[in-house]
Amino acid sequence: MIRINLLGTAKPKKGKKGRGFTMPQLTMEGPSPLIAGLAILVFAGAGIFLYHMQLERTHEKLQNQIADANRQIASMMRVKQAYLERQKDYDAFKRRFDIIDQLRAQQGGPVTLLNSVSATVNSTDGVWLLTLRDDGTSVALDGVALGPDNVAKLMTNLRNSGYFKNVELHDTVQEESPKIQTFSFSLVCEKSKA
């Protein structure tokens, strides 16, 4: 059987004494545990202090970056506000120009109609118009002519103008006058383009 003494070394036996136990001897040959503990505390404190200083520098750097970012945000907000104001002005001008273009497009219809009818009536002798009504797709003309041939010539000229695709005589009435014979007529003309 093998014995292992973990508590210390046994003294050699001298006589008949009982077994004795001795404490291990502490030697002062290395650094003192107190000095070693203090050194560890100093190094730990220095490390904590350096880490704290590094965190302070990082915090200050981040605060400066946040301040710069806030200044840039404020600058960008001013630019955005100026852009939105310019965009509103642009939209207002665009609406105005669209309205002007729309009015010009609508203005062309009656002007073209009146120019076409005026040129046709002026090129036909012995015809005078009294009324002109535009119903959108058709035009009603009432007038006076010196004879039925003048009314027929007016109808032919209106068809040949290209503005009307169909010209119909609604009615014609001979007016009784002691000096001159006249005919009142009423025409309905269908527009070729509405």
Question: Can you put this structure into words, describing what you see?
Answer:
The chain folds into two domains: 39-123; 126-191, Gyrase A, domain 2. Strand 1 (127-134) and strand 2 (138-145) form a beta hairpin. The chain is rod-shaped. It has 194 residues and is of the alpha+beta class. The protein is 54% helix and 20% strand. A four-stranded antiparallel β-sheet has the order 1-2-4-3, covered by helices on one side.
Largest sheet: 4 strands, antiparallel
The string of secondary-structure elements, in order, is HEEHEE
Query: Could you give the count of β-strands?
Result: 4
Please report which band the strand proportion falls in: under 5%, 5-15%, 15-25%, 25-35%, 35-45% or over 45%.
Answer: 15-25%
> What is the global morphology?
rod-shaped
Structural class of the helices, strands and pairings? alpha+beta
Mean pLDDT across all amino acids: 84
Please give the alpha-carbon distance between the first and last residues.
Answer: 127 Å
Approximate helicity band: 40-55%
Radius of gyration: 58 Å
Q: Total helix count?
A: 2
Extract low-pLDDT stretches.
none
**Number of discrete domains:** 2
Query: Strand order within the widest sheet?
Result: 1-2-4-3
